[in-house]
Design brief:
Length: 501
């Protein structure tokens, strides 16, 4: 029986982050392990409220009160079983998920701070790995059916694991030189050290999943060949088409880049250093990828922008400004606009924000300013108001509000426009919709025998949604192949996050 008064006895506490001067001098994760005592205390704050809205907040339907109570009572072995029953990769979500479950925690109804669900999750996952590694769970018998998974992000990997464990022969095709999708080269090591991906890959390999890196489906191998060699295909190619701003004067200057160009290159340098290999030192246009000594301007307010901020500080930037089009959000939930248990519009500060830099809200770039040699020297910004008219966003600069911010390096982190336009789409007979995503039927098929999941289907989203969609698409493929029994399907293709409107 959970402790009904735990939340009255204990306040919400997270482990202390590593001190800023220490952590920006390396690329290690920001959070040290929390320690068993703190996690047991925090798990005790879960009162097992009877109708756990956190289940609905989590797209995976993680059984949060169950594993909170198992941690409280010291049953870590059983807790990890419960966690793995719904989540293939809790060590990823426990580190990276923005935790919509916590926004839906019933404690929030009474004005209390939510349970630290995400922290408990990662500690359960890490404790299991430390105890006896990630034990492979190969299928008891092969089905003789074969599936190609295109794309090795969390959606592709979750589907691959589910299908391999059900006995199907799974081959994951990845055009990059390493497996992991955005987890590998998009998300920096200070949020997710890559050893966590490598440990999972060892488990997947031992479970029979085959990996083919450096293979771009649609170019190096045709869709026709893939369909001939496999009984079903899952497309999980992500939503990596970066939004740009070609109309802004000066966009073509040297030093103005898509955030991902800088971020991926920077992450590759870290990966190369870790492997003792020489670092890749420049972007394709010859710009050194290093922000050292530079005035950096990051345009955008999401995960990508925060990751650029952390990277810039670790590279030794002289100063960083982060610009956001929208006004500064409130620091408390606006119950009129976003009632509990929905995901509230709030000022979200990542650990990268306490490392330095200045956030500037309600501004838009009017021009990237040339230093006279074709290199950016500043951005000219104006204060703006933003309103929605007939679904369209209207941005209005305030007269007389323009000013310049010095900039040697400008990073555009203004979102993604869906999955990339690439040969694979036409070859498989699928098309991008108005949002740049690929629609599916209710059974996850985008064309006969061709399934789609993750960001490619949903548009740029979250790791927890990618895993949920990968699991659900795997269940649909298993049924399509006539597999015995049913695999878990936490979401259907139309499922949306909890929302009031
Ligand atoms: C910088 C950044 C930071 C983020 N931080 C967070 C975070 O902290 N928390 C969070 O929850 N979410 C975060 N996200 C979002 C999250 O990473 C994505 O939602 C998630 O990775 C989507 O998973 P996916 O498997 O659908 O696609 P992806 O991870 O994008 O993987 C798709 C893979 O498909 C491969 N591919 C594409 N086309 C082909 C082809 N033709 N042949 C072979 N391979 C192909 C790509 O190379 C890629 O490896 C972040 C995103 C970015 C960009
Ligand atoms: S995956 Fe995300 S939403 Fe689900 S329990 Fe973990 S932190 Fe919460």
């Amino acid at each position: 029986m959970p402790d009904p008064n735990g939340f009255l006895r204990y306040d919400r506490r997270l482990p202390a982050r590593r001190p800023v001067p220490v952590r920006i001098s390396d690329w290690r994760e920001v959070y040290p392990p929390a320690g068993e005592e703190l996690i047991r205390e925090q798990a005790t704050r879960c009162m097992d409220c009877g109708i756990p809205f956190c289940h609905d907040g989590c797209p995976l339907g993680n059984r949060i009160p169950d594993w909170n109570d198992l941690v409280r009572t010291g049953n870590w072995d059983v807790a990890v079983e419960s966690l793995h029953a719904t989540n293939n990769f809790p060590e990823f979500t426990g580190r990276l998920c923005p935790a919509p479950c916590e926004a839906a925690c019933v404690l929030g109804l009474g004005g209390q701070q939510p349970v630290t669900i995400k922290q408990v999750e990662v500690e359960i996952a890490d404790a299991a790995v430390a105890r006896d590694g990630l034990r492979p769970r190969p299928a008891s018998a092969p089905t003789g059916r074969s599936v190609a998974v295109v794309g090795s992000g969390p959606a592709g990997l979750a589907a691959a694991q589910q299908l391999a464990r059900a006995g199907h022969t799974v081959t994951v095709y990845e055009r990059d030189d390493a497996i992991g999708g955005l987890l590998r080269y998009g998300i920096p090591d200070f949020k997710l050290e890559k050893q966590h991906i490598d440990k999972r890959l060892a488990q997947l390999t031992a479970e029979g999943v085959r990996f083919r890196t450096g293979v771009e489906v649609g170019v190096d191998v045709t869709a026709e060949r893939l369909r001939a060699e496999h009984d079903a295909v899952l497309l999980a190619c992500g939503a990596l088409q970066g939004r740009d701003t070609p109309e802004t004067p000066g966009r073509a200057l040297r030093g103005v880049h898509q955030a991902m160009a800088h971020l991926v290159a920077a992450n590759r340098v870290v990966a190369a250093a870790g492997n003792g290999r020489p670092a890749l030192a420049t972007l394709p246009d010859g710009t050194p990828i290093d922000a050292a000594g530079k005035h950096v301007v990051i345009i955008g307010g999401g995960d990508t922008a925060a990751d650029c901020l952390g990277v810039a500080h670790r590279q030794g930037a002289a100063g960083v400004h982060q610009l956001d089009l929208y006004p500064q959000p409130p620091s408390e939930r606006d119950a009129e606009r976003d009632p509990w248990p929905t995901w509230p519009w709030l000022l979200r500060s990542y650990p990268a924000h306490e490392e330095g830099g200045e956030r500037v809200f309600a501004v838009a770039v009017q021009e990237f300013v040339d230093d006279g040699t074709g290199q950016v020297r500043a951005v000219r910004i104006a204060e703006v108001t933003v309103e929605k008219v007939d679904g369209r966003r209207i941005v209005t600069p305030l007269p007389g509000s323009e000013r310049e911010i010095p900039a040697d390096l400008v990073l555009l982190a203004i979102g993604f426009e869906g999955t990339e336009q690439q040969p694979l789409l036409a070859q498989f007979g699928v098309t991008r919709n108005a949002r740049g995503a690929v629609d599916s039927r209710p059974d996850w098929q985008a064309a006969d025998g061709v399934f789609v999941a993750g960001d490619m289907h949903r548009g740029a989203s979250l790791i927890v949604w990618a895993i949920a969609e990968g699991r659900a698409a795997a269940a649909a493929i298993h049924a399509y192949l006539g597999g015995v029994g049913e695999l878990p399907a936490p979401v259907d293709p139309a499922r949306q996050p909890l929302a009031a409107r």
